[in-house]
Amino acid sequence: MEASAMAMPWLDMAATALFAVSGALAAAQMRKTLVTFAFFAVATGLGGGTLRDLLIGAPVFWMHRSVPIAICLVSAVVVWCMPRRIWPVQAMEWFDGAGLAAYSVFGAAKALQWGIPPLPAAMMGVVTACMGGIFRDMLAGVPSIVLRPELYVTAAAAAAVSHVGLLALGVERSLAMVVAFAIGLGLRGAAIAWQLGLPAYRR
Amino acid sequence: MEASAMAMPWLDMAATALFAVSGALAAAQMRKTLVTFAFFAVATGLGGGTLRDLLIGAPVFWMHRSVPIAICLVSAVVVWCMPRRIWPVQAMEWFDGAGLAAYSVFGAAKALQWGIPPLPAAMMGVVTACMGGIFRDMLAGVPSIVLRPELYVTAAAAAAVSHVGLLALGVERSLAMVVAFAIGLGLRGAAIAWQLGLPAYRR
Amino acid sequence: MEASAMAMPWLDMAATALFAVSGALAAAQMRKTLVTFAFFAVATGLGGGTLRDLLIGAPVFWMHRSVPIAICLVSAVVVWCMPRRIWPVQAMEWFDGAGLAAYSVFGAAKALQWGIPPLPAAMMGVVTACMGGIFRDMLAGVPSIVLRPELYVTAAAAAAVSHVGLLALGVERSLAMVVAFAIGLGLRGAAIAWQLGLPAYRR
């Protein structure tokens, strides 16, 4: 088994936990109850991968094992038990960025494995990475991340497209994953560090 | 055939009607047209079970028979034809609570029948019971029920978890259904009667 | 192969482009970035058909070929490159009406082909035609089209129900499509031309 195949379940669980924490923190910011924390953690942590699996026709990944839900519920309890100020905003954005890049690569890779052609597969990377946050924002009733000019969906798209593109160029799978992840995280990191955004429509 | 299996289709239809009425009443409160009534009744009455079936990989329950949609459309017309004040708020909340408890137990039971393990199966109970109301609130643009401190999702979770837990302890299926239903309705009823809620996050 | 079967892929692509443009225009109205344009174009152009395919248990139509996503992305770029005033509001509404009628007929026809009975099949026509616009409005955070008194969902329902009904009466397939399309577009067009709407609930 190659290294990337061995690392993938761990990356997947790490990304799930990162997104679950970001969901629970949204509930904390709104001063909600523990049950709302759990709901937000589950929707944010599992939402993107769930939509991906439904779209590509795969069994939903958290239906036949209990670990992913358990990760989300534990994340909700951990956030609930801690004072809000221990979560530094900047650090959280970096963790979220790492989760975003990992999910983009992972989502595109899974779609390719299920025989989806390159363009829809890259789109599945974006769906996996971004839909959790979109569900969280919809439930919370705040303007969605896709509406902000900041590089976010763009970073996810860059990671997913690079992964699919590198594979098409014959690059070895593990290397294609690492490079695509680095591109996604680099772009998102640049956006966090220097408030990089795309130009808006002014015609 | 055991009694619970015979009662299940009837319970299911009763719960569908209750949720469909609650959807149509939301449209009535916003003074909308009959078509919006129908849309809300369908989304609220069928939404939760639809998401459950998609997630567990079962055929969507209202796709191969016409009764569930017909129940929702009739509910919309009935609500449309009646003056709003004949629907006592308190009574409606109790009906909704009964639907909530029934759907939680039913959703978890169906997931178990499809070979889903206990933790995701319990989650499917919550999804079945709560997502209809969430879709209704999203369409109406009002703050979702999952954001309120009131015991609602909690009551659904209690019913679903008790059903799954009692079965795991070897309790007979019909009994496990009745007890779990009673726990869910009891908890939700207590919340309605005494405005019981969960504590909010204040750290 | 009959004429309707030959025309269907073209009608489908035309309807996708029309809805994608309407999604991108929503992003233009909010002065968003090109990535948001693309996101709105994809969600609006593909959303309804995606939900239909998930519900009827068919493979999602844009998963195994790249054309539908490409149409949406190109639509987003085209709208982005053009000044907003070249899109006459009235003309856009007529294009949207044509897309609505085409998708209603097409969605109901596809459901029937997959063995769905008449009532749920007609509902699938409405879902195909209306959900793209609902997703667009949800993402944009504006009140959904289903909340407006204007004839919109009604026109979609009329087209879908006529198609299913005419087939049940033994009318030839191509004719049933053309007549149902004309009914849907006629109703929607009347609503656009004379601000036709349904009465609201006032009891």
Automatic annotation (TrEMBL), chains A, B, C:
Subcellular location: Cell membrane
A single Gene Ontology CC term: plasma membrane
Keyword Membrane on entry: yes
Family matches, as InterPro entries: Gly_transporter
Keywords in alphabetical order: Cell membrane, Membrane, Transmembrane, Transmembrane helix
Top-rank taxon: Bacteria
UniProt entry tagged with the keyword Membrane: yes
Coiled coil: none
UniProt similarity note: Belongs to the UPF0126 family.
Protein's name according to its UniProt entry: Trimeric intracellular cation channel family protein
Species the sequence originates in: Novosphingobium umbonatum
